[in-house]
Structures are given as C-alpha cells and as structure tokens.
Amino acid sequence: MRIIVRIMLVLAALVCALAPASAAPTVDDASARQIDELLTVRAESGGLSRSELIERLSARLLGTPYGANMLIGSATEPEQLVADLRRVDCFTYLDYVEAASRSSTRDEFLTNLATTRYIDGRVEFAQRKHFFTDWSTRERLAATDITASLSAAAVTTTKHLNAKADGSTYLPGVPVVDRAVTHIPSAAVDATVSGALRTGDFLGAYTPEAGLDVTHVGILVHTPAGPIFRNASSLAATNQVVDTPLADYLRTVPGIVVLRPL
C-alpha cells in the first residue's frame, strides 16, 4: 500500500510539473466586470477600424487608478498571469487594451493576455515582454515599429537591453538582448510627424539610459483639439489613466518610439 501511495504522489507531482504555466488566473469580481465591459465595447464595435477600436477600448479605462508593480514573478518567484484591472501601470494598461481588442469571451481575453505579455504565450518571468520594443520583435507580434519611416530626423541606437552601465542587470534571470532602437527626438516631432501618427498607435518615451528602450508608454489619439497621449500616469497630480496633450508630454521626454498595432 505504501508503494502504491508513493507512486500516486510521484504521479501527482509530475502532473503538477507538467501543468501549463498559463493556467487561468483567479480574477476578482471588479476586474471581471471591467473585462466584460471591454468585451461589450468590442462586440458593439461593428465596422470600426482597429485603430478606432483601440481608442474606444482605451477610453473605457480612463480614470482607472495607477498601480505600480502589478505583475507577480521574478527570477526567484513563480510567474503568475495577472489580470487585475482595478489598478494599472503604463504597460499593463496597454496589455489589457491589446488583449481585449482581439477577444470575444473572457477565456479568449486571458489567452490573448498571455500571448500579448509573454513571448510565445509562455507565462514565465524570463519570457515576459519586459521591454516596449519586444512588442514588435518577439512572438506573438502585436505591432510594427514604424518610427524610422516617420521622420528623417529619426536616430537609431544599439541598446543592450537589461544591461546597466555598471555591467549589472536590471532584471536578474533575464538575458541581455542587443537591439537597434530608433526614436524621433521630441524637438523633431512637428506637425508633419504628428499628422502621420494614427489614433491607436502605441508610443514609448525613449530614454538614453543604458539598458532601456523607453521609460513610459501610452496610446496616441487624435482629437479635434489636437493629438493626445492616453496613458496610465504615475504623477501625483493625476495617478490614473488620463489624456495628456501630446505637445505637453513631448516637452518632458527626449523622444518617442512609435509602434503601430498589427
């Protein structure tokens, strides 16, 4: 009997080890309602273009409180697929909008969230798309990097993503990746560049700091009053998802990286 019990315990351990890392997370009631409301927006989108759909979905989350460090996982802590829409940071905000834009049901939303946030949908810390440009370079691709096509003033810099200037890494357990990152200096974002941007484009605030591509992300939306930068702001004066005039935001950052949704 003891042998049989021991075999059963070993088999149970194997089943747990082989269970998919992307098992559906527990979703709190408030987040479930938010997801369902996003799915309703998509269901009612009719013949809207993808860019218009992204605008409507992102608008539904305006006013959502900002929350830092929303994801769970590290080199030493098992990664979890987090779907918590009670608070968002700038990256999870884009994750949820992108996932909702592709989904009709809550299960589809969670599947698309995994493939948006993780390389090949593998819910592991090392597979998380930690960098903005991962969206245009790592599967499943969510966007195309169009930065270079928007301005002759665009500048390309080879970045060693995740490598600090002192040789250490920002994220232990995540490999350093060499990548050519192109940005348009803020001073060069003139009316021509702004006019070439489309509602729904994903914008990243470029940083010259070693090992990083951007420090903040959001969504471009054209309005009758001019283009705005829709983003989950951590500023004390806002601390929620807000619309910021693009011209105002550009005065605070070195430049922008532009990814266009697929």
UniProtKB/TrEMBL annotation:
The keyword Signal applies. The keyword Manganese does not apply. Keywords: Signal. InterPro entries: AmiA-like, Papain-like_cys_pep_sf. Coiled coil: none annotated. It holds the Pfam family AmiA-like. Residues 1-23 form the signal peptide. Gene3D superfamilies: Putative xylanase like domain, putative xylanase like domain. SUPFAM superfamilies: Cysteine proteinases. It comes from the Bacteria. This is Uncharacterized protein DUF1460. It comes from Nocardia fluminea. The lineage of its organism: Bacteria, Bacillati, Actinomycetota, Actinomycetes, Mycobacteriales.
